[in-house]
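Reading group handout, session on sequence-to-structure problems. Before we discuss, look at one worked example. The prompt was deliberately terse, the way you'd type it at a terminal:

> structure Lactose phosphotransferase system repressor

The input record follows.
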Amino acid sequence: MYGEERRRAILERAREDGRVEVAALAEEFDVTHETVRRDLTALERSGAVRRVHGGAIPIERIGFEPALPQRDTLMAAEKDRIAEAALAELPDEGTVLLDAGSTTRRLAERLPPGRELTVVTNSLPIAALVSGRPGITPLLIGGRVRPRTQAAVGGWALRVLEEVYVDAAFIATNGVSAERGLTTPDTSEAEAKRRMVRAARRVVLLADHTKVGDDRFVRFADLADVDCLVTDSGLDPRLADELGAAGPRVVLA
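And the output record:
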């Protein structure tokens, strides 16, 4: 395959999947990592992609947000490990806030039985999941429901979040970096997440390593606002140190 053909194929893959990884592309096309990096640099110079750590995303996808079922299948094993590790951040009892997201849903699935917890959430799937569980008191935040994420947002949700104060908030994000903080594509989701961060004594961010360096449209928090970042072992140790230096304790699952 000629270089131009390979770059077209890489761009098609990026547009289809939302992101491409250097290691996977090198294996797929049977070329060196350096060749793939040169291809991605050429695509970036043409304005087709933006380089992020370990790969690239298509420019038109910077504001793109996959639907919940699609997100649930991405990095599934890593998200399972993150959710397991996040259990150590739960209080023995009290009130926790679970943001809408595929990784926070996995945490909801694993909430320990018999522990007295009030679970506040703006996620319809999470509320349905924990409803009726022994020891769990679910409180569903109301508001306009976004079909893409099944999250309640808007004025009603914000008014509730202004009035609550929880022991720990488990927050999801579409992107995180030391430079830009925590980002998401949608302004209404960003405002809800911003209020969640303010409403918590401790903030725990759950984000797999592909979110690192993937800055999105709206910033809703700085890394200094986060007490703990739970991610997976696929994160480059140098990036883990960089994120940790910006504020949170970093846990690699």
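Points for discussion. First: The chain has ten helices and 15 strands. Second: The longest helix spans residues 3-17.
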